[in-house]
Amino acid sequence: MKFSFPAFYETAYRFGGSTEEWVAGVLGAMAPLFDTGHGMFAQVYDASVAGKLEVSTQWASPEYLPFFAEWAKSGITLDPSVMESMCRRLEFATLRGVIAGSDPSAGYASRLAPIYSIVGIEDVVVINTLDPNRKGCVFFGSRDREAKVTPPEWARLRRVMAHVGAAHRLRSRIAELEVQPDGEAVLDPDGRLHHAEMPAQSDDAQRALRTAVVTLERSRGPIAESSPDEALATCNALTSARWTLVDRFERDGRRYLVAHRNASAVRPSVELSSREKLVSDHARLGRGNKAIAYQLGLSVGAVANYLHRAQVKLGAASRVELIQKLERAASTGD
């Protein structure tokens, strides 16, 4: 089965049904990239408060259930600190890679590995949305042999998870509002603007939204079949670090794209602008400039500029020092 970006996008940004149904649908759409037929598992979590991990939804495919049965018989209890650490700082990894590395969770992972082996699972690929707000989804994909994930495969999964994270943020916001918001702009599939509210009324914002709509529609066209990687790579998770585009169908069948405000909620900074802080927080998570650009729908040059401005304002001589300063500033309440 071949990965379909249009099917994935429509599934990820569909807001009806329960979170469990949404997770199952997203993993189903991701299956050609992530599932090898040996089981998948997912958790939706809130790790925004250190030491207080909350898991609101769990889902497992039938192939994954024998592992849980063996785990229950083993007497090994869940270590919440390991799960919290993974949710707060890990973007992707493999079980074998964690065991072989110096990660603090290596000991715990090595205790689980024999249990996985009993049910024919020799490795597990872990991917996480890793949002600056520390709320999101973590997915586990089982393998019957050591996982050898190539850099292009990781890049593909990272882009997919950027969209999963954006969709999860918007779903959470809609759930809090208890009604789907109208959005800040409405465009047709040709990129024509039909409605805009501030800040989508500026010329730059409208130009960015039109470009994003045209790009999204192209990614859902013939290129999705002929070059699915290109379709995924050209469709950023956000537009201008603010908007997510979602389909809306009118009663007469006409389709529009609604631009919903959907930026990550980050802790304000006295020294930095909101955009500088947002970009810096993504860098703090370990993302490179290209990955940040995809997450936020900014150019790589703009990301570099925001990071440079943050370094100057905080008196950091390098990216590493900037991240260290952000870590120290966050340690009092993160």
Describe the structure.
This protein has 334 residues and is of the alpha+beta class. It has three domains: 5-172, Beta-Lactamase (2-Layer Sandwich), CATH 3.30.450; 181-261, no CATH class; 274-330, Arc Repressor Mutant, subunit A (Orthogonal Bundle). The protein is 49% helix and 16% strand. It contains 14 helices and nine strands. It has helices at 5-12, 19-34, 65-74, 80-89, 95-100, 106-118, 151-177, 203-219, 223-226, 228-233, 274-284, 289-296, 300-314, 319-330; strands at residues 40-46, 54-60, 92-94, 123-128, 135-143, 185-187, 193-196, 243-249, 255-261. Strands 2-1-5-4-3 form a five-stranded antiparallel beta sheet, with helices on both faces. A four-stranded antiparallel beta sheet has the order 7-6-9-8. Strand 6 (185-187) and strand 7 (193-196) form a beta hairpin. Helix 11 (274-284) crosses helix 13 (300-314) and helix 12 (289-296) crosses helix 13 (300-314). It is globular. 39% of the residues are buried.
Give the topology.
Layout: H1 5-12, H2 19-34, E1 40-46, E2 54-60, H3 65-74, H4 80-89, E3 92-94, H5 95-100, H6 106-118, E4 123-128, E5 135-143, H7 151-177, E6 185-187, E7 193-196, H8 203-219, H9 223-226, H10 228-233, E8 243-249, E9 255-261, H11 274-284, H12 289-296, H13 300-314, H14 319-330
Antiparallel strand pairs: 1-2, 1-5, 3-4, 4-5, 6-7, 6-9, 8-9
Helix pairs in contact: 1-2, 2-7, 3-6, 11-13, 11-14, 12-13, 13-14
